[in-house]
Amino acid sequence: MAKTLKIALAGNPNSGKTSIFNNLTGARQHVGNWPGVTVEKKEGTCKYNGYEITVIDLPGTYSLTAYSIEELVARDFVIKEKPDVVVDIVDASNLERNLYLTTQFKELGAKVVIALNMSDVAEKNGMNIDAKNMSHLLGAAVIPTVGHKNRGMKELLEAVVNTAENKTGLEEHPIAYGKEVNPEVEKIQRILSKDSNLVSQYSPKWLALKLLEGDSEVIKVAENSPVWNEIQHVVNKSRDYLHYHIGEDAETLIADQRYGFIRGLAAETVQRPELERLSLSDKIDKVITNRLLGLPIFLLFMYALLKFTFSGSGFMVGWFEGFFEWLGGAAAAVIPEGIFQSFIVDGIIGGVGGVLGFFPLVLFLFLGIALLEDSGYMARGAFVMDKIMHAFGLHGKSFLPLLIGMGCTVPALMASRTLESRKDRLITMLVNGFIICGAKIPIYALFIGAFFFKSGATVFFLFYLIGIAFAMLMARLFRIFLLPGEVAPFVMELPPYRVPTIKGILIHMWEKGWMYLRKAGTVILLVAVIIWLGFTFPQEPQYSKDYEAMTAQIEENFAQQVALITTGFGTAVNEIEENEIFAKFAEVDSQFSAAIEEGGLEEGSKIYFALEKGKNKSFATLQETYPQQARLYVQYRALTPAKDEQLVAIENAMAAEQMEKSYAGRVGHAIAPFFKPLGFDWKSSIALLAGFAAKEVVVATYGTLYSMGETDLEAAEPLREAIQNDPSWTPLKAISFMIFCLLYIPCFVATVVFHKEAGSWKWTGFMVLYTTVLAWVASFIVYQGGMLLGLG
Amino acid sequence: MAQLSDLTPGKKGKIVKVTGRDAIHRRLLDMGVVGGTDFLVEKKAPLGDPIQIKIMGYHLSLRKSEAETIIVE
User: Fold this and answer.
1) Among A23, A280, A632, A781, which residue has the least CB neighbours within 10 Å?
2) ipTM above 0.90, yes or no
3) Residue B35 in contact with residue B16, Cβ under 8 Å?
């Protein structure tokens, strides 16, 4: 059996950890979540020297405190899972701050190997690092690596194996915390050693340090110790002693000592150039976040991101649509017509197609985000926007999800992950739905077209602004009442600009895209089927009119009229085509349509016109000879289209009634009184209900309910006219309806993704409820207020 | 002695003490804002807040309200 090793990759954000993880594990990766939290967990495997090595990628952190989930996850993993080796990725060109994390891993008692990453950049900047000396001083192997060029990986694994086997020959050098702190640490350690159970799980020195620092999680652990009273007493005494005699709190003193150790280490092992040159990155930064150019450049980048996401993915969206259309068609051809066919084609294939319809968008979005993130711009965008966002109780980084919301709420919610604080993340997600997304545009096009055509663009823009205003206002309110507290600090590294690697970007994009499919896919399919069931059943409701009899009546009338005409020609109904005179007339028509088809001519073109003239002339000649038959022939030709039109009208009326009487339609009827004070009738309540499936369905539902049959969203003129001519609609009602659509629950795909991101039913329930209540209240005020002012 | 927030871009200095509490204090320590460290105020954001400093060889941004908690010389 192969020997196994478990190693953890740790390091600061931007230290190049991801590329080293990718180098080591290649495609043998697995992405999941850390149990109980929404922090991503990546795992992979690699083989080296007879070892089967499991690599766990810890979240990128600067420290190991109890203040953030990421840091807790990282340190709990080291404490509880006890990896054989912690590989600490250290950015060589940013040594001091990176080593701060290293000192804390050593405090935890972990076996550490240091990857001195991006050592090429450090060298280029004129830094000279003595890795060998450093490893002696640290008591841990130090291996120079260049992650994005895949250099130093073999040496790194060699050091990992040696460290695991205790064959490095390096001596441990504990960090000294100075003559003030050290004695206090030792005092606490002595008390702790009385609890053998506790010290078998944790390094006593680390516990002592953390208790001195006042780490909330460690205190929770220690509280269960039988000697907690003693511990508490000693810790408090030590903290007070340090505070009154040194004038500093223990936390600061310990941090000072760690940095002191690092400074000493750097002084002995690092040679810096005399004069620091302005790096290319610094020069770029001078322009990009310039006082004057900063904002315009930001707007330009964001425009480019949206354009890239929504236009760039167009071709792929086309592929997906084409594929699902083809699949639907193929299934319809194989499966006999009926309820099962509808289930497969409309329910399953339609539902899955709906989910995958977002997929290219998500892929391109994450590609764009990865580009901005890996190049170093993302942090600058937040830097530029923080002042505005902060004014509304949001964090600088919230700009990104809100912006993406203009395209689609689904990827926008996923993008809110870049926010570190859970409160900031929740607030950003809660208000995201108010930004008008792409799928809502047909609703506005329909109603603005019907009632505010003259100032269409202005009204449309106004609704965008109303949406943004609501988002900002609600964010502010949530910050004050619901999730009070400070916005997460903006103490943030602005990483150097880098050219992103293609491999890194593609892996990033695929991971996020796959996550979307896996997380949302199954639930969405289920809901799609439920919605289909709701609108499809019962299949044969109790219709208010006997449509079948009406259809039969039309067919009968048609047959009678045909019989009358054929009698005029002197033949039986089924022999009319063979009638000599009839054939002469038919010949004129068929010649004309053959010529049109052959030339691919369009109505209104010159040749078409000429041909039509010719046809009319031939017809007139025939008419002179057979005046009576000519009249009958014209009648005969008009009969079929007239009949078809009547049949379609009945079919559409039937579809409208079927929808009205379906289970979903009944629910729509049942909730209609609830919408009455807002000025909506039952048609609108069904449309709003259907809008939960997807916002563009609102328009399609109106199409069916107004007996228009299937409505093309891009060309809804007949429906627009029908709504315009419907006396129950007024401009005020249209405004009220548009306000409601602006604010009420996002579509169920977004709701599912919200739930996955928020991770609790409580928040999902709250989101669904508050958006609906807010929409109702706002529409109520608009409609009733308008009525009072006499605008109805 | 002054607050970091009082310094204009281009000014250099040394951190004396961080006076803030809890999360923000901790965060600053983690990012290397500790007594005795040299820094350079690089710039302000286009809207005047946050600011950007260079410390320990990297760029750090922080809001003015956060910079107020840092005593420098």
Assistant:
1) A280
2) yes
3) yes
